[in-house]
Structure prediction request, 257 residues.
Amino acid sequence: DDDDINDVASMAGVNLNEESARIMAANSDLVGTQIQSCKDEPFLAAIPLHKRILEMAKKLGITDVPAEVITFISHATQNRLRTVIEKVTMVTQHRMESHKDNEWYEQATDVRSQLKFFEQLEHLEKQRKDEQEREILLKAAKSRSRQEDPEQARLKQKAKEMQQQELAQMRQRDANLTALAAIGPRKKRKLDSPGLLTIGGEVLGMTSGSQAGFGAPTSRQYARQKVTRVTLRDFIFYMEQERETSHSLLLYRALLK
Prediction:
């Protein structure tokens, strides 16, 4: 058999002795090392899981469940959970991806600007109605008719309450301005202080460099850790795309929230 292998290798132009020597030289640090297998740690707690499976198995007439079954179910749960987290994270990253600076994409509609425009129209309409109501109340408050009907009295009372409310708002505004003037301008937080800063959902961690002597400059490295926040909408989108969960009760419960 060795002669046949040598014949095939020589026909292919491969020298087995040279290849073996090259492999031994490249992996010389691994030669002679002892390889040990890692302990199989279950993902789920074995005792509660075994108890739960035994309760379900007794209903089907099964009285004994081997430990290998517990380990297998634990690993399957871990693998399934890892797959779900990876897919939901991918959905979230696609949602957060912005194409504003991409020259191959052109913005067709701007829903945010449209909603803002409608909000401004609604605010202007509400402001116009408030001004009209204010004018009616002020006219009612200035009327000097001797015979006042109940509606006129109600308008006068409402005008009085409105004037008191406006006066209270003016006093509150003046008090806030006085307090801000007494506090003075806000000081900016120093970024070279030790600790962690959370800005816009991102955690900025500061790690000091090598230790230097007294008075020597210390190099600091700001490590930014981006946090991906998964929302319920992302999880619903994932369940709608998966065949196993597209018609599940869990999806319908999530849609009702």
Observations:
- Residues 113 and 119 are 10 Å apart (CA to CA).
